[in-house]
Amino acid sequence: MIEATVADIHAALINEHVTIREVVKQYLERIDAYNEELNAILTVNPNALDRADELDAKLAAGEFVGPLHGIPTILKDNQNTADMPTTGGAVTLEDSMAPDDAFVVEQMRTVGAIIIAKANLHELAGGGTTVSSLGGQTRNPYALDRTPGGSSGGTGAALATNMAPIGFGTDTVNSIRSPASACNLVGLRPSMGLVSREGTIPVALTQDMVGPITQSVADAARILDVIAGYDPEDPSTAQGAEYIPESYTDYLNPDGLKDTRIGVLRSVFASGPESEPVVEVAEEAVVDLETLGATTIEIDAEVDVDALIDSFHVGSYEQQAQFNDYLDSLGDGAPIETLEAFVEAGEYDPSLESGLEAALEIESPTDEPEYFERLYRRNRFIEELYDSMAAGAVDALFFPHQKQLVAEIGDDQLGRNGFLSSGTGFSSITVPGGFSKEGVPVGVEFLCRPFDEPTLFEVAYAYEQGTRHRCPPEGFGPVE
To answer: Ranges for the Amidase domain (predicted)?
Structure first.
Protein backbone atom coordinates (compact mmCIF):
# COMPACT_ATOMS: atom_id res chain seq x y z
CA MET A 1 0.00 0.00 0.00
CA ILE A 2 2.99 2.35 -0.27
CA GLU A 3 1.89 5.48 -2.20
CA ALA A 4 -1.37 3.80 -3.31
CA THR A 5 -4.00 6.15 -4.72
CA VAL A 6 -7.74 5.67 -4.50
CA ALA A 7 -7.67 4.39 -8.08
CA ASP A 8 -4.86 1.94 -7.26
CA ILE A 9 -6.77 0.49 -4.31
CA HIS A 10 -9.99 0.18 -6.27
CA ALA A 11 -8.20 -1.55 -9.13
CA ALA A 12 -6.73 -4.07 -6.69
CA LEU A 13 -10.14 -4.66 -5.11
CA ILE A 14 -11.97 -5.05 -8.40
CA ASN A 15 -9.33 -7.45 -9.74
CA GLU A 16 -9.58 -9.43 -6.47
CA HIS A 17 -5.90 -9.01 -5.65
CA VAL A 18 -6.77 -7.87 -2.14
CA THR A 19 -9.76 -7.47 0.18
CA ILE A 20 -10.79 -4.31 1.98
CA ARG A 21 -9.98 -5.98 5.28
CA GLU A 22 -6.45 -6.68 4.05
CA VAL A 23 -6.08 -3.07 2.86
CA VAL A 24 -7.25 -1.66 6.19
CA LYS A 25 -5.10 -4.10 8.14
CA GLN A 26 -1.98 -3.01 6.24
CA TYR A 27 -2.57 0.64 7.11
CA LEU A 28 -3.30 -0.20 10.76
CA GLU A 29 -0.05 -2.15 10.88
CA ARG A 30 1.80 0.90 9.59
CA ILE A 31 0.25 3.05 12.30
CA ASP A 32 1.30 0.49 14.90
CA ALA A 33 4.84 0.33 13.51
CA TYR A 34 5.59 4.04 13.04
CA ASN A 35 3.34 6.13 15.24
CA GLU A 36 5.53 5.92 18.33
CA GLU A 37 8.33 7.68 16.45
CA LEU A 38 6.10 10.35 14.92
CA ASN A 39 3.25 10.99 17.41
CA ALA A 40 0.90 11.45 14.46
CA ILE A 41 -2.18 9.47 15.59
CA LEU A 42 -4.29 10.03 18.70
CA THR A 43 -7.02 7.39 18.31
CA VAL A 44 -7.42 4.28 16.17
CA ASN A 45 -10.97 3.34 15.26
CA PRO A 46 -11.72 -0.01 16.96
CA ASN A 47 -14.52 -0.64 14.43
CA ALA A 48 -12.42 -0.17 11.30
CA LEU A 49 -12.00 -3.87 10.47
CA ASP A 50 -15.67 -4.59 11.12
CA ARG A 51 -16.61 -1.86 8.67
CA ALA A 52 -14.12 -3.31 6.19
CA ASP A 53 -15.87 -6.68 6.45
CA GLU A 54 -19.25 -5.04 5.77
CA LEU A 55 -17.90 -3.32 2.67
CA ASP A 56 -16.19 -6.52 1.49
CA ALA A 57 -19.57 -8.27 1.70
CA LYS A 58 -21.21 -5.52 -0.33
CA LEU A 59 -18.48 -5.70 -2.95
CA ALA A 60 -18.85 -9.48 -3.18
CA ALA A 61 -22.57 -8.94 -3.80
CA GLY A 62 -21.79 -6.52 -6.63
CA GLU A 63 -22.59 -3.36 -4.66
CA PHE A 64 -20.18 -0.44 -4.85
CA VAL A 65 -21.54 2.09 -2.36
CA GLY A 66 -19.67 5.10 -3.70
CA PRO A 67 -16.45 6.56 -5.10
CA LEU A 68 -14.51 5.97 -1.87
CA HIS A 69 -15.70 2.41 -1.22
CA GLY A 70 -13.30 0.80 1.24
CA ILE A 71 -10.79 3.66 1.28
CA PRO A 72 -9.06 4.15 4.66
CA THR A 73 -9.20 7.76 5.83
CA ILE A 74 -7.60 9.72 8.66
CA LEU A 75 -9.40 12.68 10.26
CA LYS A 76 -7.93 15.59 12.15
CA ASP A 77 -9.18 15.18 15.71
CA ASN A 78 -11.27 18.34 15.71
CA GLN A 79 -13.90 16.77 13.41
CA ASN A 80 -16.85 15.13 15.17
CA THR A 81 -17.25 11.38 15.08
CA ALA A 82 -20.07 9.66 16.94
CA ASP A 83 -18.00 6.50 17.48
CA MET A 84 -14.76 8.08 18.76
CA PRO A 85 -13.93 11.04 21.01
CA THR A 86 -13.30 14.42 19.41
CA THR A 87 -10.58 15.97 21.53
CA GLY A 88 -8.99 18.87 19.67
CA GLY A 89 -5.76 17.41 21.04
CA ALA A 90 -6.74 18.61 24.52
CA VAL A 91 -6.49 16.63 27.74
CA THR A 92 -9.53 18.56 28.96
CA LEU A 93 -11.58 17.19 26.03
CA GLU A 94 -10.14 13.67 26.12
CA ASP A 95 -13.55 12.11 26.76
CA SER A 96 -15.63 14.55 24.71
CA MET A 97 -18.21 12.69 22.61
CA ALA A 98 -20.31 14.19 19.84
CA PRO A 99 -23.88 12.95 19.30
CA ASP A 100 -23.27 12.44 15.58
CA ASP A 101 -20.72 12.75 12.81
CA ALA A 102 -19.72 16.08 11.32
CA PHE A 103 -21.42 16.73 7.98
CA VAL A 104 -18.23 16.07 6.01
CA VAL A 105 -17.53 12.86 7.95
CA GLU A 106 -21.07 11.63 7.28
CA GLN A 107 -20.64 12.36 3.57
CA MET A 108 -17.40 10.38 3.51
CA ARG A 109 -18.87 7.36 5.29
CA THR A 110 -21.91 7.38 3.00
CA VAL A 111 -19.72 6.84 -0.07
CA GLY A 112 -17.72 4.04 1.56
CA ALA A 113 -14.74 5.71 3.23
CA ILE A 114 -13.52 3.96 6.39
CA ILE A 115 -12.37 6.26 9.18
CA ILE A 116 -9.42 4.33 10.56
CA ALA A 117 -7.92 6.93 12.89
CA LYS A 118 -7.93 10.49 14.18
CA ALA A 119 -4.74 12.50 14.08
CA ASN A 120 -2.91 14.81 16.44
CA LEU A 121 -3.07 18.56 15.82
CA HIS A 122 -1.85 21.75 17.32
CA GLU A 123 -4.20 21.89 20.29
CA LEU A 124 -7.58 23.43 19.36
CA ALA A 125 -5.96 24.23 15.98
CA GLY A 126 -4.29 27.09 17.84
CA GLY A 127 -0.83 27.11 16.25
CA GLY A 128 1.38 25.93 13.43
CA THR A 129 3.75 23.37 14.93
CA THR A 130 1.40 20.49 15.95
CA VAL A 131 1.94 20.14 19.67
CA SER A 132 -0.88 19.33 22.08
CA SER A 133 -1.44 18.46 25.71
CA LEU A 134 -2.98 15.13 24.71
CA GLY A 135 -0.71 14.06 21.86
CA GLY A 136 2.57 15.81 22.53
CA GLN A 137 4.81 16.94 19.67
CA THR A 138 4.33 15.41 16.24
CA ARG A 139 7.54 15.01 14.24
CA ASN A 140 8.22 15.57 10.57
CA PRO A 141 9.10 12.22 8.94
CA TYR A 142 11.48 13.90 6.47
CA ALA A 143 13.43 15.61 9.25
CA LEU A 144 12.68 14.29 12.72
CA ASP A 145 14.11 17.37 14.40
CA ARG A 146 11.50 19.53 12.65
CA THR A 147 7.77 19.98 13.05
CA PRO A 148 5.32 18.70 10.41
CA GLY A 149 3.76 22.16 10.07
CA GLY A 150 0.34 22.68 11.47
CA SER A 151 -2.14 22.76 12.82
CA SER A 152 -3.09 19.61 10.84
CA GLY A 153 0.39 18.15 11.19
CA GLY A 154 -0.73 14.77 12.52
CA THR A 155 -2.62 14.13 9.31
CA GLY A 156 0.37 15.36 7.32
CA ALA A 157 2.91 13.11 9.05
CA ALA A 158 0.55 10.12 8.82
CA LEU A 159 -0.15 10.47 5.12
CA ALA A 160 3.49 11.17 4.29
CA THR A 161 4.38 7.79 5.81
CA ASN A 162 1.45 5.95 4.25
CA MET A 163 -0.63 5.35 7.37
CA ALA A 164 -3.60 6.00 5.06
CA PRO A 165 -4.01 7.09 1.45
CA ILE A 166 -6.20 10.13 2.18
CA GLY A 167 -6.99 12.40 5.11
CA PHE A 168 -8.39 15.70 6.32
CA GLY A 169 -7.28 18.93 7.85
CA THR A 170 -8.90 22.18 8.86
CA ASP A 171 -7.55 25.61 8.00
CA THR A 172 -8.05 28.96 9.75
CA VAL A 173 -4.80 30.58 8.62
CA ASN A 174 -2.51 27.96 7.00
CA SER A 175 -3.42 24.71 8.63
CA ILE A 176 -4.26 22.40 5.71
CA ARG A 177 -1.56 23.68 3.42
CA SER A 178 1.22 24.08 6.01
CA PRO A 179 1.53 20.33 6.74
CA ALA A 180 1.09 19.59 3.04
CA SER A 181 4.04 21.85 2.30
CA ALA A 182 6.13 20.45 5.15
CA CYS A 183 5.33 16.79 4.42
CA ASN A 184 5.54 16.69 0.60
CA LEU A 185 1.77 16.36 0.13
CA VAL A 186 -1.18 18.02 -1.55
CA GLY A 187 -3.37 20.27 0.61
CA LEU A 188 -6.58 21.80 -0.71
CA ARG A 189 -8.30 24.74 0.96
CA PRO A 190 -11.67 24.99 -0.83
CA SER A 191 -13.42 28.30 -1.43
CA MET A 192 -15.31 29.66 1.53
CA GLY A 193 -18.89 28.45 1.14
CA LEU A 194 -18.10 25.28 -0.81
CA VAL A 195 -17.68 22.80 2.09
CA SER A 196 -19.52 22.58 5.40
CA ARG A 197 -17.73 23.25 8.69
CA GLU A 198 -20.59 21.79 10.79
CA GLY A 199 -19.32 19.49 13.52
CA THR A 200 -15.79 20.91 13.54
CA ILE A 201 -14.32 22.58 16.63
CA PRO A 202 -14.23 26.22 15.49
CA VAL A 203 -11.55 28.88 15.77
CA ALA A 204 -13.14 31.62 13.65
CA LEU A 205 -15.88 30.73 11.18
CA THR A 206 -15.10 33.79 9.10
CA GLN A 207 -11.91 31.93 8.17
CA ASP A 208 -12.34 28.25 9.12
CA MET A 209 -12.41 25.68 6.33
CA VAL A 210 -12.31 21.87 6.05
CA GLY A 211 -10.38 20.21 3.24
CA PRO A 212 -8.41 17.16 2.10
CA ILE A 213 -4.75 16.36 2.54
CA THR A 214 -3.62 13.71 0.05
CA GLN A 215 -0.64 12.30 -1.79
CA SER A 216 -2.02 13.37 -5.17
CA VAL A 217 -4.07 16.14 -6.77
CA ALA A 218 -6.39 13.52 -8.28
CA ASP A 219 -7.37 12.19 -4.85
CA ALA A 220 -8.02 15.72 -3.60
CA ALA A 221 -10.43 16.18 -6.51
CA ARG A 222 -12.17 12.89 -5.72
CA ILE A 223 -12.69 13.94 -2.12
CA LEU A 224 -14.00 17.37 -3.07
CA ASP A 225 -16.60 15.66 -5.27
CA VAL A 226 -17.91 14.00 -2.10
CA ILE A 227 -17.76 16.83 0.43
CA ALA A 228 -18.71 19.92 -1.60
CA GLY A 229 -22.36 20.88 -1.28
CA TYR A 230 -25.10 22.59 0.63
CA ASP A 231 -25.57 21.91 4.33
CA PRO A 232 -28.41 23.78 6.05
CA GLU A 233 -26.44 23.63 9.32
CA ASP A 234 -23.73 25.76 7.69
CA PRO A 235 -25.51 28.55 5.80
CA SER A 236 -22.28 29.66 4.11
CA THR A 237 -22.59 26.63 1.83
CA ALA A 238 -25.58 28.19 0.08
CA GLN A 239 -23.07 30.44 -1.69
CA GLY A 240 -21.20 27.63 -3.39
CA ALA A 241 -23.96 25.20 -4.32
CA GLU A 242 -24.51 26.59 -7.82
CA TYR A 243 -20.80 26.45 -8.72
CA ILE A 244 -20.21 22.71 -8.19
CA PRO A 245 -19.46 20.89 -11.47
CA GLU A 246 -20.48 17.33 -12.27
CA SER A 247 -17.02 16.19 -11.17
CA TYR A 248 -13.83 18.00 -10.28
CA THR A 249 -11.93 15.05 -11.74
CA ASP A 250 -12.99 16.26 -15.20
CA TYR A 251 -10.38 19.00 -14.79
CA LEU A 252 -7.41 16.72 -14.18
CA ASN A 253 -5.69 17.71 -17.41
CA PRO A 254 -1.95 16.97 -17.75
CA ASP A 255 -1.79 19.82 -20.28
CA GLY A 256 -3.73 22.15 -18.00
CA LEU A 257 -0.95 24.76 -17.85
CA LYS A 258 -0.82 25.32 -21.59
CA ASP A 259 -2.11 28.74 -22.60
CA THR A 260 -2.67 29.74 -18.97
CA ARG A 261 -1.45 32.95 -17.38
CA ILE A 262 0.08 32.42 -13.94
CA GLY A 263 0.76 35.46 -11.79
CA VAL A 264 3.98 35.18 -9.81
CA LEU A 265 3.46 37.06 -6.54
CA ARG A 266 7.10 37.90 -6.07
CA SER A 267 6.57 40.13 -3.03
CA VAL A 268 5.87 37.10 -0.79
CA PHE A 269 8.98 35.14 -1.86
CA ALA A 270 11.04 36.92 0.86
CA SER A 271 14.81 37.35 0.97
CA GLY A 272 17.71 36.67 3.27
CA PRO A 273 19.65 33.50 4.11
CA GLU A 274 16.78 31.94 6.10
CA SER A 275 14.54 32.08 3.00
CA GLU A 276 17.12 31.06 0.40
CA PRO A 277 16.30 27.30 0.39
CA VAL A 278 12.62 28.04 -0.25
CA VAL A 279 13.26 30.72 -2.86
CA GLU A 280 15.55 28.37 -4.81
CA VAL A 281 12.77 25.79 -5.06
CA ALA A 282 10.14 28.41 -5.96
CA GLU A 283 12.28 29.94 -8.70
CA GLU A 284 12.83 26.49 -10.21
CA ALA A 285 9.07 25.99 -10.08
CA VAL A 286 8.50 29.19 -12.07
CA VAL A 287 10.78 27.80 -14.79
CA ASP A 288 8.83 24.53 -14.70
CA LEU A 289 5.54 26.40 -15.14
CA GLU A 290 6.88 28.04 -18.28
CA THR A 291 8.28 24.75 -19.58
CA LEU A 292 4.84 23.19 -19.09
CA GLY A 293 3.19 25.85 -21.25
CA ALA A 294 2.19 28.64 -18.89
CA THR A 295 2.90 32.30 -19.41
CA THR A 296 4.16 33.72 -16.13
CA ILE A 297 3.26 37.29 -15.23
CA GLU A 298 5.10 39.28 -12.58
CA ILE A 299 2.50 40.73 -10.20
CA ASP A 300 3.52 44.18 -9.02
CA ALA A 301 1.36 44.22 -5.89
CA GLU A 302 3.35 44.61 -2.69
CA VAL A 303 1.83 42.15 -0.21
CA ASP A 304 2.99 41.78 3.38
CA VAL A 305 1.18 38.69 4.69
CA ASP A 306 2.19 39.24 8.32
CA ALA A 307 0.76 42.76 8.12
CA LEU A 308 -2.47 41.36 6.68
CA ILE A 309 -2.80 38.97 9.62
CA ASP A 310 -2.32 41.86 12.03
CA SER A 311 -4.89 43.87 10.08
CA PHE A 312 -7.83 41.50 9.72
CA HIS A 313 -7.33 38.10 11.34
CA VAL A 314 -10.43 37.61 13.55
CA GLY A 315 -9.54 34.48 15.53
CA SER A 316 -9.45 36.05 18.97
CA TYR A 317 -12.70 37.93 18.28
CA GLU A 318 -14.79 34.92 17.30
CA GLN A 319 -13.29 32.00 19.20
CA GLN A 320 -14.98 32.28 22.61
CA ALA A 321 -18.56 32.63 21.41
CA GLN A 322 -18.19 30.00 18.68
CA PHE A 323 -16.35 27.51 20.89
CA ASN A 324 -19.08 27.86 23.51
CA ASP A 325 -21.72 27.21 20.83
CA TYR A 326 -19.81 24.10 19.77
CA LEU A 327 -19.69 22.76 23.33
CA ASP A 328 -23.42 23.41 23.68
CA SER A 329 -24.05 21.34 20.52
CA LEU A 330 -22.47 18.30 22.21
CA GLY A 331 -25.17 18.13 24.88
CA ASP A 332 -24.33 15.57 27.55
CA GLY A 333 -21.16 14.59 25.67
CA ALA A 334 -19.35 17.82 26.58
CA PRO A 335 -16.97 17.53 29.55
CA ILE A 336 -17.01 21.33 30.05
CA GLU A 337 -19.44 24.10 29.13
CA THR A 338 -17.32 27.11 28.17
CA LEU A 339 -13.95 28.28 26.92
CA GLU A 340 -13.48 29.93 30.30
CA ALA A 341 -13.81 26.52 31.95
CA PHE A 342 -11.28 25.10 29.49
CA VAL A 343 -8.78 27.78 30.47
CA GLU A 344 -9.50 27.39 34.18
CA ALA A 345 -8.75 23.66 33.94
CA GLY A 346 -5.19 24.69 33.06
CA GLU A 347 -4.30 21.52 31.18
CA TYR A 348 -3.62 23.02 27.73
CA ASP A 349 -0.25 23.30 25.99
CA PRO A 350 1.56 26.54 26.92
CA SER A 351 1.66 27.63 23.26
CA LEU A 352 -2.06 28.44 23.52
CA GLU A 353 -1.84 30.79 26.47
CA SER A 354 -1.69 34.19 24.77
CA GLY A 355 -4.34 33.29 22.22
CA LEU A 356 -6.73 31.97 24.85
CA GLU A 357 -6.23 35.04 27.03
CA ALA A 358 -7.04 37.29 24.07
CA ALA A 359 -10.14 35.25 23.23
CA LEU A 360 -11.44 35.38 26.81
CA GLU A 361 -11.42 39.16 26.72
CA ILE A 362 -14.11 39.18 24.01
CA GLU A 363 -17.44 37.61 24.89
CA SER A 364 -19.16 38.69 21.66
CA PRO A 365 -17.40 40.03 18.56
CA THR A 366 -20.38 42.21 17.69
CA ASP A 367 -19.69 44.29 20.80
CA GLU A 368 -16.25 45.20 19.49
CA PRO A 369 -15.88 48.09 16.97
CA GLU A 370 -12.43 46.78 16.03
CA TYR A 371 -14.05 43.54 14.85
CA PHE A 372 -16.06 45.40 12.24
CA GLU A 373 -12.99 47.42 11.28
CA ARG A 374 -11.19 44.14 10.63
CA LEU A 375 -14.01 42.84 8.45
CA TYR A 376 -13.98 46.12 6.53
CA ARG A 377 -10.21 45.89 5.94
CA ARG A 378 -10.66 42.29 4.90
CA ASN A 379 -13.23 43.25 2.27
CA ARG A 380 -10.97 46.03 0.98
CA PHE A 381 -8.11 43.58 0.52
CA ILE A 382 -10.39 41.11 -1.26
CA GLU A 383 -11.16 43.86 -3.77
CA GLU A 384 -7.44 44.58 -4.16
CA LEU A 385 -6.71 40.90 -4.78
CA TYR A 386 -9.40 40.71 -7.46
CA ASP A 387 -7.93 43.87 -9.03
CA SER A 388 -4.40 42.45 -9.07
CA MET A 389 -5.56 39.29 -10.80
CA ALA A 390 -7.68 41.21 -13.30
CA ALA A 391 -4.92 43.71 -14.09
CA GLY A 392 -2.58 40.88 -14.99
CA ALA A 393 -5.34 38.87 -16.67
CA VAL A 394 -4.10 35.85 -14.74
CA ASP A 395 -5.85 32.53 -14.17
CA ALA A 396 -4.08 31.86 -10.87
CA LEU A 397 -1.48 33.32 -8.53
CA PHE A 398 1.65 31.37 -7.64
CA PHE A 399 4.00 31.62 -4.63
CA PRO A 400 5.82 29.44 -2.07
CA HIS A 401 3.47 28.45 0.75
CA GLN A 402 6.11 29.36 3.35
CA LYS A 403 8.89 31.92 3.20
CA GLN A 404 11.15 29.66 5.27
CA LEU A 405 11.62 25.94 5.77
CA VAL A 406 9.32 24.31 8.29
CA ALA A 407 10.45 25.10 11.83
CA GLU A 408 12.68 22.99 13.99
CA ILE A 409 10.95 21.54 17.06
CA GLY A 410 10.83 24.16 19.79
CA ASP A 411 10.78 27.12 17.38
CA ASP A 412 7.79 29.06 16.09
CA GLN A 413 6.90 28.77 12.42
CA LEU A 414 7.53 32.11 10.75
CA GLY A 415 6.81 33.47 7.30
CA ARG A 416 3.73 31.56 6.14
CA ASN A 417 1.79 32.88 3.15
CA GLY A 418 -1.43 30.89 3.53
CA PHE A 419 -3.45 33.82 4.90
CA LEU A 420 -3.85 35.05 1.32
CA SER A 421 -6.48 32.33 0.95
CA SER A 422 -7.84 31.92 4.49
CA GLY A 423 -8.20 35.65 4.97
CA THR A 424 -10.10 36.15 1.73
CA GLY A 425 -12.04 32.95 1.00
CA PHE A 426 -10.22 32.42 -2.31
CA SER A 427 -9.52 28.81 -3.30
CA SER A 428 -5.98 27.49 -3.02
CA ILE A 429 -3.94 24.33 -3.23
CA THR A 430 -0.42 23.49 -2.10
CA VAL A 431 1.53 20.83 -3.99
CA PRO A 432 5.06 19.43 -3.62
CA GLY A 433 7.60 21.80 -5.14
CA GLY A 434 10.79 19.97 -4.28
CA PHE A 435 13.28 19.77 -1.43
CA SER A 436 15.96 21.87 0.15
CA LYS A 437 19.53 20.63 -0.07
CA GLU A 438 19.01 19.11 3.39
CA GLY A 439 16.02 17.11 2.15
CA VAL A 440 13.28 19.23 3.76
CA PRO A 441 10.11 19.44 1.63
CA VAL A 442 9.02 22.77 0.15
CA GLY A 443 5.45 23.28 -1.02
CA VAL A 444 4.29 25.71 -3.68
CA GLU A 445 0.81 27.21 -3.78
CA PHE A 446 -1.69 28.15 -6.47
CA LEU A 447 -4.50 30.56 -5.59
CA CYS A 448 -7.63 31.08 -7.69
CA ARG A 449 -10.75 33.19 -7.42
CA PRO A 450 -13.60 31.88 -5.24
CA PHE A 451 -15.33 28.80 -6.66
CA ASP A 452 -12.79 28.47 -9.47
CA GLU A 453 -11.63 25.06 -8.27
CA PRO A 454 -11.79 23.74 -11.86
CA THR A 455 -8.92 26.04 -12.85
CA LEU A 456 -7.15 25.27 -9.59
CA PHE A 457 -7.19 21.54 -10.34
CA GLU A 458 -6.13 22.04 -13.96
CA VAL A 459 -2.99 24.00 -13.14
CA ALA A 460 -2.06 22.03 -10.01
CA TYR A 461 -2.51 18.66 -11.70
CA ALA A 462 -0.46 19.71 -14.73
CA TYR A 463 2.32 20.99 -12.48
CA GLU A 464 2.25 17.84 -10.36
CA GLN A 465 2.34 15.52 -13.36
CA GLY A 466 5.04 17.56 -15.06
CA THR A 467 7.39 17.65 -12.06
CA ARG A 468 6.68 14.54 -9.95
CA HIS A 469 8.16 15.83 -6.69
CA ARG A 470 6.13 13.56 -4.41
CA CYS A 471 8.14 10.76 -2.79
CA PRO A 472 7.86 9.07 0.62
CA PRO A 473 10.38 9.73 3.38
CA GLU A 474 13.23 7.32 4.01
CA GLY A 475 13.00 5.00 6.97
CA PHE A 476 9.27 4.31 6.75
CA GLY A 477 9.18 1.52 4.20
CA PRO A 478 7.14 -1.71 4.17
CA VAL A 479 6.34 -3.22 7.55
CA GLU A 480 7.91 -6.63 7.90
So the answer is: 22-456
